[in-house]
Write a structure and sequence with these properties.
Layout: H1 2-5, H2 8-13, E1 26-33, E2 41-43, E3 49-59, E4 69-77, H3 85-97, H4 108-114, E5 119-128, E6 134-145
Antiparallel strand pairs: 1-3, 1-5, 2-3, 3-4, 5-6
Length: 156
């Protein structure tokens, strides 16, 4: 595109982003939020239904990591349309860690909404998958601060 040609000189001077690899291995405290799109429960392009939260680092040993974000997701229903029992089991455990009890899968969206703002201690560990690709694994450990109570309007 010719309209981009005027930026060619400046392009070279912009450093490449550090990494899309996320946070280094370690233990962090993070506040639960949503992605920029605000979506917590989504059907991905492959047809799988996934729940996602973003953890924004609020405390850790390396202050350079404060403010960085990690995404934790659970595959609830696979691309084949079948319930993903492993994903659901981790989702139930992690929601309980965040202070939300999920009784039915149809309650997932409400449970995700209810934990926004909670602070949780979590660990990041990278390991290679069977194809040798490094994968970031996030493990929620301990609830540090419960999500703020949702404000309700008084009706008279």
């Amino acid at each position: 595109m010719d309209s981009l040609r005027k930026f060619d000189g400046a392009f070279d001077g912009v450093p490449e982003a550090d990494s899309f690899g996320g946070l280094p291995d370690g233990t962090y405290q993070g506040r639960v939020s949503t992605s920029a799109s605000g979506v917590l429960l989504t059907e991905d392009k492959d047809g799988a239904l996934r729940a996602r939260i973003v953890l924004e680092v609020v405390a850790c040993d390396d202050e350079d990591q404060i403010g960085r974000k990690a995404t934790n997701s659970w595959t609830l229903v696979g691309a084949d349309g079948a319930l993903n029992e492993i994903g659901v089991s981790y989702f139930k455990k992690d929601m309980r860690c965040l202070g939300a009890e999920v009784v039915k899968l149809s309650d997932a969206a409400g449970a995700l909404e209810s934990v926004l703002g909670a602070v949780v201690q979590f660990a990041v560990k990278h390991k290679d998958d069977k194809n040798g690709v490094s994968r970031e694994n996030i493990y929620l450990n301990t609830l540090v601060e419960a999500a703020p109570a949702k404000k309700t309007r008084n009706r008279r």
